[in-house]
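tool=predict chain=A
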Amino acid sequence: MPIYARFETISLKGHPELDERWVQDRIAEDPSILGLGDVVLKDKERIQPRAGRLDLLLQDAEASHRYEVEVQLGPTDESHIIRTIEYWDIERKRYPQYEHTAVIVAEQITARAFST
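tool=predict ok
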């Protein structure tokens, strides 16, 4: 018999135990949870020259497409959106042989993010 569990929505921003690293680890363990197809973890906390660290770099199984993934707790903000685009731009210029897609994972995608 299937187990039924009622879920409760919680916010991870400010949560005492579940933080951004926890979210990154869950995605790294099972990248399919993002719904991007058959992808694997290529790198985690990838250093970007003069630009910080890309949270996750995923690659499709055929190795022709890469996904630059930034994780943000809470609602999207301009700095994370810009950072995601910067990391995507650095990676696509560094590795032009791949197709690249910028991905932001956030608890809430604000309307402002859609018009950016």
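The helical segments are 20-29, 78-94, 111-114. The two ends are 47 Å apart (CA to CA).
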